[in-house]
Amino acid sequence: MNPVNYLYLSALLFTIGAAGVLIRRNAIVLFMCVELMLNASNLALVTFSRLHGTLDGQIIAFFTMVVAAAEVVVGLAIIVSIFRTRHSASVDDSNLMKL
Amino acid sequence: MTALNLAATGTTSLGEAVQFWVLAVVAVGGALGMVLMRKAVHSALCLAATMLALAVCYMAQGAVFLGVVQIVVYTGAIMMLFLFVVMLVGVTSEDSLKEQLKGQRFAAVLCGLGFGVLLIAGIADARLNHFTGLSEANAEGNVPGLARLIFTRYVWAFEVTGALLITAAIGAMVLTHREHVKAPKTQRELAAQRVKDNIQLPPLPAPGVYARHNAVDIPALLPDGTIAEDSVMETLRERGQIRDVSQEMLRRMAELENTTADWLGRPSSERPTVAGPRKSLEPVPAQQPDAQTDVPKADQEGAE
After folding, report:
1. Residue numbers in A near B17 (CB within 8 A)
2. Is A93 part of any domain?
3. CB B85 to CB A25 under 8 A?
4. Pairs from B143-149 (Cβ < 8 Å, separation ≥ 24)
5. Does residue A96 form part of some domain?
6. At B227, is the pLDDT very low, low, confident or very high (cuts 50, 70, 90)?
7. What is the count of structural domains for chain A?
8. Which residues form the signal peptide (chain A) (predicted)?
9. Mutation test of the interface with chain B: which of A14, A21, A24, choosing the one with the most B Cβ atoms within 10 A?
10. In this complex, do B111 and A46 lie within 8 Å of one another by their Cβ atoms?
11. Tens-digit pLDDT profile for residues B126-169
12. pTM here?
């Protein structure tokens, strides 16, 4: 098996995540889709690290994980505070700025 | 370790190929399940499965440290955070199937397909035939190699990461902190409010009958034989889970009284009549006064 299959898997997962962000309406599930996209890019980075024979790709994947953890913490805090005021986690309901 | 080194080289063994195809199916299935499941909890569990599969993929590619971090940070911390928020927001909340924009779902699927084809075609076109492999880079071990890079070439990014994490933690605390608009009521104010409202001044009656039953779903009896609905908590009352055992108790007390009367040889005029069965939650009819008046006596004897 050619290790390039990992890249195909990564592309597939990224695509599923991106389509999920467009399809789903629940803010929490949207966040999960974003996490899936980040994971897919991590897999690509690890595979690139193997391709080049250096560890830099793994370092970048590591930093991606840290940023993802921080992003999830802040994002979920925002979702919780929106849920407290609007009593809904659906992104369709947050339309105060709509004309 | 030799297996890991072999896995980290440019070619893949048969074992890695088998493992890849198994895990790829799991990962893609989990991802599709996450997008397609209607309940957020199911989505979260599907995503956890995908992340575990990816962690094994990392390890198979020589990124042992990242695989462990993936399991600890992603499936451990981040998914737990997701599940906490799902529980907070409501497990039962489902996505509405109503489309806010017409044809948006179809367009989204189309966009996804186009994007995927573009991405995969790009990779297929790239001629990635020579994989160097990590056996050289991982020669002194994966973790020492990563540490060498993090603390030399990427030390600045590493320090900035620390600042980012602190900012995120403070941001989460600020965002979820609830400010009291007015001071919370003291106990004295609450008591004054209760007197002012004048709905239920004394404490609610305790549940249970005759010190025989003290379960929370058994209502207490009022002096006239009716049950005190206040003694059962509101949740059980609304569910209709009040268990009225007062008739059973009255019957047993009357039986006890009758055995005493038998032993003492009392005439039948002094014996209590056994109350007939009555429906739950209905007051006792007024034409059975002797059964009611005999109850406290029977109770005292039963307690002795």
Report:
1. 1
2. no
3. no
4. B143/B64, B143/B65, B145/A55, B146/A55, B146/A58, B146/A59, B146/A62, B146/B65, B149/A55, B149/A56, B149/A59
5. no
6. confident
7. 1
8. none
9. A24
10. no
11. 877 778 888 888 888 889 999 999 999 999 999 999 999 999 99
12. 0.70
